[in-house]
Design a protein that fits this description.
By secondary structure, the chain is an alpha+beta fold. It folds into three domains: about 120 residues, no CATH class; about 110 residues, Butyryl-CoA Dehydrogenase, subunit A, domain 2, CATH 2.40.110; about 140 residues, Butyryl-CoA Dehydrogenase, subunit A, domain 3. The chain has 13 helices and 14 strands. The strands form five sheets. Strands 5-8-9-12 form a four-stranded mixed β-sheet. Strands 6-7-11-10 form a four-stranded antiparallel β-sheet, with no helix packed on it. It is globular, with a radius of gyration of 22 Å.
Length: about 425
Amino acid sequence: MTTNQVAESTKDLLARMDQFIEREIKPLQAQDDNERFFDHRREYERTDWENGGIPRREWEDLLREMKNRADKAGFFRHDLPKEVGGNESTNLEMAIIREHLARKGLGLHNDLQDESSIVGNHSGVHMLTKFGTQEQKDELIEKCLTGQAGIGFGLTEPDHGSDATWMETQAVREGDDWIINGAKRWNTGMHRASHDVIFARTSGKDGEARGITAFLVPTSTEGFSVDFFRWTFNMPSDHADVSLRDVRVPSSAIVGEEGHGLDVAQGFVHENRIRQAASSLGAGEHCIDLAVQYARKRVTFGEPLARRQAVQWPLVELATEAEMLRALIRQTASELDERHHLEVSDKVAMCNYRANRFCCDAADRAMQIHGGVGYSRHMPFEHIYRHHRRYRITEGAEEIQMRKVAGYLFGFAGPNKSK
């Protein structure tokens, strides 16, 4: 079987998901005017404009109900280890799932703005299962899955983004405790987070990967402050500026090994980038699907738009790119299941930056083909564009992804690195 073919077990899973969406999720979206979170009112209704621009409680309560139903149906934990109730899904299967759900368009079943889906993308839980102590696992995993706790990720700083080895946040040992001082930016989920994973330099020199440690810090700790939520291109915002002033935590707060915090930061990054690429592919395909449907029925100057080459050819280019991306994403996901992630890091980077760019291009073209109505918020294109435009910066900017590909290509990095 090629990676472009889908195993019968995965086909059955997708069919059961579709049935669950029709039976449980679409009726939930339709009741109590919950459609306001997905139609032209979506940005306004999702955002608590008077409270820092964070997500409204009603919006997140609806997402929580969706997750609870998906968990009860056996889908929400699908990619997690069996010991925490999951099915240990493969990277290939998760790529297929993410593309499938995103291609269905905007809806409660899979709202990428919040990384909320009937099949969760549990980066914090994956971090704990892989690097956490038993005490950390027992305290947080189940609470994170049921919405009783949440974990933020404090890596980026005001003056340091992709150059994480130059971070300025410091942690100094004092007996069996550590004292942390510094600042973080784009700290996602801090309006609800019970804990924040803070990366701080504990040894070594600027520019060295070794010497950075990850600390699991309760947000209630004295000296920990959520200062400001940065409003973004796509609202609401849960991206905070955080400051730490003499924050004291015990050594038991360390996640992973002391000095090896970047291993924790990178522990799920390749899997996450593949899933992100698959979601961008699916969302872009949704834009193409709607553009083709509209072009077939929209008549101008006596004939359908679909008969005009000016409409056909851009969509042909996008459809061709989608096919090539699907093959690359699934092949790379399959290799990620079978090989060490650093052996395919360049392929993951290719998938990620090309798929994110493809989605933006597809949303823009669909908007153009729909004309004025495409530019309105009564269509999904502006929302899809604004959200997926973010992915060209977060999770490693596309320039960083291209740099990774170049490093492998020219032998500066990777398994074929020149001596």
